[in-house]
Design a protein that fits this description.
Jelly Rolls, 2 domains, 2 helices, globular
C-alpha cells in the first residue's frame, strides 16, 4: 500500500511539472482579424461597401460625400483592450470614421447605443452613440488634437475597466505611456457588436484588430507603409513565441526525468 502511494505521488509530481511548463497568459484574446485571408468573413455589411482585397478592412467609396458605409462584427466585450491600426487616404471636412468598440443595437435602421471613438483628419474624440449615426456625442474631456492623421497608419489601443474608466492610447508602446484620452463613464455596460461606420468620399482602412478581455498591451507602432499589406504589428520587450510542439517536448522530457527519479527512489526502498 505504501509503495503504491509513493508511486502515485511520483506521477503526480511529474504531471504538475508538465503543467508548470505550459504557456501561461494573463490576457485572453476574445477575437481578432488581420484580414490576411482577403475576406471579411464574420462581418456584416449593413450599408455601403467594404473589402479586404488588400489584406485590410477598407471602405469602398462611390465618390459622394454623403456616403456612409457601415459594418459590424459580433462582440460582447465590455472590459479589456481593443487594439487596431487605422489609415485614411486623404482629408476632407466631411470625412470621418466612427469605431464603436462597445455597442448594442439593431439594423436596419441603424440604431446603436454604446461607446466609440470618432477619427477625423486632425482629431480623435471619445464619446457615446445613441440612436442614429448622427447621434454621436463627444465627451468634453474626451478629445485629442493632432497635426494630421491622414495618409499614414496610426495605432490605437482603447482600454476600459470594470469601474468604467476609459483610456485611449495612440501609437503607444505600453500601458506606461501617457494615454491621449482618459475619462470615466458608466452609462452603458453591455455590448453586442464592434461596429464601424465611415462617412465621406475618401476611403479608410482598419487592420490588425485584436480584442482582449484584460487591460494589457505591448506594441511597436507601425512605421509609414505605402500600402495596407506593409503594416504588421510586432510585440516588443518580449521573447519570440515558442511553438507548442517545442513546449510540449520540453515538458514531456521534464516529466520523464521526474518519473524516472521517482521510480529509482522507490526501487532503492
Amino acid at each position: 500500500m505504501k509503495t503504491n502511494l509513493l508511486k502515485m505521488t511520483g506521477l503526480l509530481i511529474g504531471m504538475v511539472f508538465v503543467l508548470s511548463l505550459l504557456p501561461q497568459s494573463a490576457a485572453a484574446e476574445v477575437w481578432s482579424d488581420d484580414f490576411d485571408d482577403y475576406t471579411i468573413n464574420g462581418w456584416t455589411v449593413t450599408d455601403g461597401e467594404w473589402t479586404a482585397a488588400d489584406q485590410a478592412l477598407e471602405s469602398v467609396t462611390d465618390y459622394d460625400w454623403r456616403t456612409v458605409s457601415t459594418i459590424w462584427h459580433e462582440s460582447n466585450t465590455t472590459t479589456g483592450t481593443w487594439s487596431f491600426d487605422y489609415k485614411v487616404y486623404g482629408t476632407s471636412d466631411y470625412v470621418y470614421t466612427t469605431i464603436l468598440f462597445m455597442v448594442n443595437g439593431t439594423d436596419p435602421p441603424i440604431d446603436y447605443y454604446g461607446y466609440g471613438i470618432r477619427i477625423r483628419a486632425t482629431s480623435v474624440c471619445l464619446g457615446k452613440q445613441f440612436g442614429q449615426r448622427w447621434n454621436f456625442v463627444a465627451f468634453a474631456e474626451g478629445v485629442a488634437e493632432f497635426d494630421d492623421l491622414c495618409g499614414t497608419w496610426t495605432h490605437f489601443d482603447i482600454t476600459r475597466d470594470s469601474a468604467g474608466t476609459f483610456n485611449v492610447y495612440i501609437n503607444a508602446t505600453s500601458l506606461t505611456d501617457e494615454p491621449a484620452i482618459t475619462m470615466v463613464n458608466t452609462e452603458y455596460d453591455y455590448s453586442e457588436r464592434f461596429a464601424i461606420y465611415h462617412a465621406g468620399q475618401i476611403d479608410a482602412c482598419i487592420d490588425n484588430l485584436v480584442v482582449n478581455d484584460a487591460i494589457d498591451f505591448t506594441y511597436t507602432p507601425p512605421t509609414t507603409p505605402t500600402s495596407p499589406t506593409e503594416t504588421t504589428p510586432t510585440t516588443s520587450d518580449s521573447p519570440p513565441p515558442q511553438s507548442m510542439d517545442a513546449t510540449l517536448l520540453i515538458a514531456g522530457a521534464g516529466a520523464v526525468v521526474v518519473i524516472v527519479v521517482a521510480v529509482v527512489f522507490l526501487k532503492k526502498r
